[in-house]
Design a protein that fits this description.
The structure is a homodimer of 546-residue chains.
Chain A (H helix, E strand, L loop, with lengths): L11 H6 L10 H18 L9 H5 L14 H12 L23 H11 L12 H17 L3 H7 L8 E4 L2 H16 L9 H4 L1 H8 L4 E6 L4 H9 L7 E4 L9 H13 L3 E8 L11 H10 L3 E5 L24 E5 L11 E5 L36 H35 L4 E5 L5 E6 L2 H8 L3 H25 L5 E5 L9 E7 L7 H17 L1 H14 L1
Parallel strand pairs in A: 2-3, 2-4, 4-5, 5-6
Antiparallel strand pairs in A: 1-7, 6-7, 8-9, 9-11, 10-11
Helix pairs in contact in A: 2-4, 5-14, 6-14, 8-11, 14-17, 16-17, 16-18
Chain lengths: 546, 546
């Protein structure tokens, strides 16, 4: 593309030109936009997951540590971006990218994204958002209904009420979880006779006033790392986020939960919150939410459900039951940018009680004044974009029945893949799918036979070798860029809780085919066959077992 | 636009179609995109700030509290959005929208926004971002250099280092400020012999171990409300965010700051952080940062500078000096979505010491593992979009000299407006601009004469009436939708700190003309002239003063 006089002289006139509406579509910017669009479609059409280029080489293109002195032509800059950035981005929309919770986007969201960014609304306050504020409250209301199923009167009364909020829209699940626990903490150490409340007086004063040695939060050992972050940020301390053991399906053990709660109370501590996980990040399993709600009620703790990933399952009539009990939660986290197919940056926390957000209410003199409907009075973040529009549009254009089909198909595909893995002599499923997530690993056939005997000593000695092999295969496959699965480390019951590295797949992309899944296994087997030194060490260990 | 078979049947084939690349540009989606683009350009071309429609009426369009059962045609949904949402959004890009820090965007960012959203990268980890990770580190490096001006070796050594980070990219200034204070808190109550550190053990244990009665944060009484939120979230308590009195230019009084620090220490408390404001939200003034840094050093406190709005001033050779001392800060907040003309959702916190982020480091088994370059190990948020690209592009296409011109012109325009106000018989400047922000109000000429005599009793009795009038004018002007200024409540020294409601303008939009500013005053005068009952009460009070 040739140089264009779009803007590259530093004078007022040429500078102001970049802020004035370009004459579409044959303007310079119109041509650049078309070029970008075509390139983006080309990128999204490639069924690879990444180009092979080491990170260190990419870093060379991003070295200049000073703000460039002189302006660059938009056309030149665009070429730089396409060549150095886009070409070396990850094809998260590729149907062969099945390693993380980011997958394909419906294409109708892309022009809407441009609209959303172009409008540049700020949802912290009505004065910079107007209709976007009722829209966001509407989105929160719809997801609140998805979880809590209250009647029409409830939503007519609370959805648009200035003093209330059915939840908070935020950038993602981490902020949603922190917000939920912030509310829980502030409600527990609330203002009362002789105490102005934790928000005003601080945590130490709150503990002292209420006579608690410490606050604790209970969550399964499979809980998301953001909860440890929340415990840190909120001043509770990561040690007070208590990991409760799970059963062989990675679900919290209720007896163990009760016991941990009793221990805490016996020691003068207080169980501030119990967190149920509805779709663990690593294995996709769902905690027994109803029973957890009961325990929470018994110990008078806030019950939060982290359904960041699994929450969308509520749209499936067939699978909704898996999350039974979620409606008992005081708060629920759902990420629209996971199984709701919305672009990155759309998380929500929902509150059963429309007044719960009072515990974290903030005001100022120039915005979010008392009595205003400004959303910023009840959010952790301040200025926020109009991302809620993307959720609103996805809900309308896909519809509940559309989501249901997507979710049912994903789960079915995960079961198909688990069966396919089981049919192989040299792979094994480590955790079965409950939703569309499963873990597995490559194990050479002879090793598999040894493991099946269940000898603890043998498992202990072989596992590190298998872990090294799994790590190697995962890295090599990612670098080759044809397909991508992620990896994590679990403590499977069938292997006596020996720390075990596994492949992890999330089958949410509707375009992932059965043939592609077979390809993934074939590629992994091929990579394994070339890992001669790792295999050598594994077989040597095998021989030494006798 | 007619109904199209884009997607409105719930079957696998039609559903999957929304995830497959549309044949541009004459496809249905291509036509919808063109239609949206034209509408957006039309919206952005209107020099009004909002259409007149009461919020209650808008809320009627966003009432349905259940997820729609059936899918809607994209074309139908688009019409709904244009009619019900876009038409009733706020024209934040209008040159007559001068009330908040959100202003115009350069148009080249819009096609890039579509690219950014379409790529759907997740910057929490390399596996879902690849080249976007070095790019974001590069952006952080450039802004770090803008503040700290370290040499090339420094950036070569630290910018891309896995164990370090020169800052954290986040959704906005609030999260940036919370992150900065989180680091300050965790560094203060760090692990040491016999104590695992606050991150692990919690705030109460940290206070006890180090023997502090309480932690406090010092900031001018003009500090942003997000700091109170940070004090709440972090468990410090809002009462321990101590508001230090300001001088007649809304700058922190150093003597008062020293005194407050001494009081806290005398009472067994600890000054955890001192916060300098570089561009207060309400008046745009800059604290004496060098002197504050000195005090911070004396009391061994973390020195943070909240330059969310004013930070971009560092790109102006002429005005950079106003922020002298910012390079002494341990951390600095800058919002790119304010004076850097980037869309909503781009905040940064920068750290002088590349190791500072260790205090808030988090890891997991499946991502942000030890030794990885995953950005998520050092951020408050988890999943994040590729917004850093927008900052990167704006820095390159506008260049430092381009920003300099924009900033210099904005400040000049603010001085012009202040002079214009001073020339009026019935307006008065309340706070003069230091950057491009000023406050003023309408005061009928006879009242102005009375106020000028400086009688405290007269001021006390007239101010409430003037406040009601200012409020009325601001609301009415906003509702009329021709132009928009915001309002806040200050305690001006010239009026014996009597709480005074003022108009607040931020003159960052390069397309705002001098004529438009004259129009704003003319419109306000006209609205005032019709406020007969408020004026009546004011004049009655005047008469009663005798």
């Amino acid at each position: 593309m040739s140089k264009t006089p779009q803007y590259a002289e530093v004078n007022q006139e040429s500078l102001y030109r970049i802020f004035t509406i370009p004459e579409a579509p044959d303007s310079t910017l119109g041509r650049i936009e078309k070029h970008l669009s075509e390139n983006l479609m080309g990128f999204l059409g490639e069924h690879i997951v990444a180009r092979e280029k080491p990170l260190q080489a990419i870093e060379q293109d991003f070295q200049g540590a000073t703000v460039p002195e002189d302006p660059q032509f938009v056309s030149d800059h665009t070429e730089f971006l396409l060549d150095k950035l886009v070409a070396h981005s990850v094809h998260t929309a590729s149907p062969r990218f099945i390693g993380h919770m980011t997958s394909a986007l419906p294409y109708f969201l892309l022009p809407l994204a441009k609209l959303m960014v172009g409008l540049n609304q700020n949802l912290v306050k009505i004065e910079t958002s107007k209709a976007f504020t009722p829209l966001e409250r509407n989105v929160i209301g719809m997801l609140h209904h998805l979880v809590y199923q209250r009647d029409g009167d409830f939503y007519r009364r609370w959805m648009h009420s200035a003093q209330h909020s059915l939840g908070a829209f935020c950038s993602g699940g981490t902020v949603a979880n922190i917000t939920a626990l912030w509310v829980a903490r502030n409600q527990l150490l609330k203002p009362t006779n002789g105490f102005a409340g934790i928000a005003a007086d601080g945590l130490a004063a709150g503990l002292q006033h209420y006579g608690y040695q410490r606050l604790t939060v209970m969550v399964s050992e499979r809980g998301h790392y953001s909860l440890a972050k929340a415990a840190d940020v909120l001043g509770i301390g990561r040690k007070n986020l208590i990991a409760v053991p799970t059963d062989h399906n990675n679900r919290v053990q209720i007896a163990a939960l009760r016991e941990k709660c009793q221990q805490v109370e016996a020691d003068g501590g207080k169980v501030m919150a119990i967190i149920g996980v509805a779709g663990t990040t690593e294995t996709g399993h769902i905690d027994p939410l109803e029973e957890m709600a009961e325990v929470a009620q018994q110990v008078n703790a806030h019950f939060h459900v982290d359904a960041a990933w699994g929450g969308a399952t509520l749209m499936s009539s067939r699978h909704r039951q898996l999350l039974a009990g979620i409606e008992l939660a005081d708060s629920v986290t759902i990420d629209a940018h996971k199984q709701m197919y919305v672009p990155m940056g759309a998380g929500l926390v929902l509150f059963k009680d429309p007044s719960a957000v009072r515990a974290i209410e903030h005001h100022a003199e120039y915005i979010i004044r008392h009595g205003s409907k400004d959303l910023g009075a009840h959010t952790m973040e301040g200025s926020r974009s109009g991302m809620a529009m993307m959720v609103f549009s996805a809900l309308h254009v896909i519809g509940r029945r559309g989501y249901e089909l997507l979710i049912d198909n994903s789960i079915e595909k995960a079961h198909y893949f688990a069966d396919l893995i089981r049919q192989q002599d040299d792979f094994e499923v480590i955790t079965d799918p409950e939703l569309c997530l499963l873990t597995y690993r490559y194990v050479p056939e002879p090793v598999k036979h040894v493991l099946e005997q269940g000898n603890a000593e043998h498992i202990k000695r072989l596992t590190p070798h298998l872990n090294a092999l799994t790590r190697y295969i995962q890295k090599r496959q990612r670098e080759d860029g044809q397909s991508f699965v992620s990896r994590t480390k679990l403590t499977p019951h069938q292997y006596h809780s020996e720390p075990t590295v596994v492949f992890r797949v999330v089958l949410a992309n509707p375009l992932t085919t059965e043939a592609m899944l077979a390809d993934v296994l074939a590629e992994q087997r091929k990579i394994a066959s070339r890992a001669t030194s790792l295999l050598g060490a594994l077989y040597t260990e095998m021989r030494e077992l006798g």
